[in-house]
Design goal:
Blueprint lengths: L35 H20 L9 E5 L2 E8 L2 E8 L6 E5 L20 H5 L3 E5 L8 H19 L5 E6 L1 H12 L7 E5 L6 H18 L18 H13 L1 H11 L4 H22 L18 H10 L7 H9 L11 E8 L8 H11 L5 E9 L6 H17 L6 E2 L2
Parallel strand pairs: 4-5, 4-6, 6-7, 7-8, 8-9, 9-10
Antiparallel strand pairs: 1-2, 2-3, 3-5
Helix pairs in contact: 5-7, 5-8, 6-7, 6-8, 8-10
Amino acid sequence: MSLVPHTPQVRSSPQGQHSPKVQHAPHGHVQLRRFAWLLVPVVLGLSVVTAARAQATRTPSAEPEVLQTSAGTTEVGVLDSAEYRIDIPGNWNHDLVVFYHGYSERPFRYRLDSSIGIQTEPMLRRGYAVIQSGYSQTGWALQVAYPETEDLRLYFIRKYGTPRETIAAGGSMGGALVMITMELNPKNTYTAGLDLCGAVGPSYIHLNRRFLWRAAFDYYFPGIMGSLDPVPPNFEESDALRARVVAAMKAKPEGAAAMRNLTGLHTDIEVARAVGYYTYVIADLQHKAGGNPFNNHNFIYTGSSTDSKTDYALNDGVRRYNADPRARAYLLAHYSPSGRLTRPMLALHTVYDPLIPASSLALYDAEVTAAGYGPNLVQQYVHREGHCTFSSDEVGRAFDELIHWAHTGVAPLPGLLK
């Protein structure tokens, strides 16, 4: 099994009109690399597909639909089995936003008569063209989303011309793709990146945490969710399943409290929704990786209550799982960041996010700092609860701060978005 299927070598477009002032690592800086053994196949995977993809001309599989009005141009089509959407405003400033959507359990469908979306509309309104790939796979799709979006970017350039500068932006899983894009494009292809509520950092940490919590749920409430390794292929999230989870938690309040404490979620209903979603994601990755990439065999659970005896009981009683080595390698390859963030990236989060905790960026921040690029990452937050529940105005203000940073070298202040 290839660890890096369908991954292109990064190609640079001509330098944009604006050159950001960025922090570069000191000359000769030596970086410690976790999982160095894994980076060899990653690099090989990049080089093996380079020649084929560099010479390939990706064109829509059928004539795209195009709508031209006084407001601008919208194009939808299918490029290499991935649906896409291109929006160019009538007042196009000749700059481009490459936008990555988040984790989706269903295929993305783009229509000419649908709105562009709350996260992308502020960028279009500011005169930027926006391109979006729907990806050819659902779920955790980093392995196809990045190269397919790169194909779309190159198609846009061939048809509409080379933009002065290109900004990467994305929400949720799309935030992780912004991170990947910024790390794999060090030669001025992208000017800056906007991460909205992103699952930024090592995938194995972000996704394995969900496996840890699901295993803990099975300790407190055995038999409700079914097998964890493997998750049954016919598993489905449903209202009936969530109702069973909520009922079980009400019947066992000490277990319910432990799950709220472990996950940081506020209510039993949120836990019920999360446990079903975690299970779906685990099944998705088990299928894509060809085995179980997760484990809890070397993990000590803490924080189930203020009484350490509840942690003793959980650690003594929870079922322990080992990861399949090849499946684990797949998860590490998609994606373990290097921290080499050579261009500005602004991350925006709600303070309480039930799916991707605001604290999850801390690990990536440490990796970027250790790699010598700490000044290129700024995190801001808004006073709101929920996953990606930003207003259009808040996204626009964050985007403005990012562009000002990229053009002037003056980084926005971390903290509350002003």
